[in-house]
Amino acid sequence: MNVTPELKKELFKEFGKSESDTGSTEGQIALFTKRILFLTEHLKANKKDNATRRSLVGMVGKRRKLLAYLKRKDIVRYRAIIKTLGIRK
Fold first, then answer.
1. Are 66 and 55 in contact (CB under 8 A)?
2. pLDDT in tens, 14-26
3. Which of 15, 43, 46, 70 could bond to 78 as cystine, CB 3.0-4.6 Å?
4. Are 29 and 60 in contact, with CB atoms under 8 Å apart?
């Protein structure tokens, strides 16, 4: 796992309200995006790693649900995070 505690603090500082605000929707979406990108690269090298593939699909689903929630609650914040992270939607 390439997501270190220092990287998490940076992500939550950039996308959340503060370093310790780990529950913000934007921070969680950013964290899932980092993990998804890492696992995608891992799966390119290890095509038969089905356990990782399954966890990747789960993470994508969780991120999708968080994005749907954010879209429902605040469309401006949703559009900003999509643009910042470069997520296709």
1. no
2. 998 888 888 899 9
3. 70
4. no
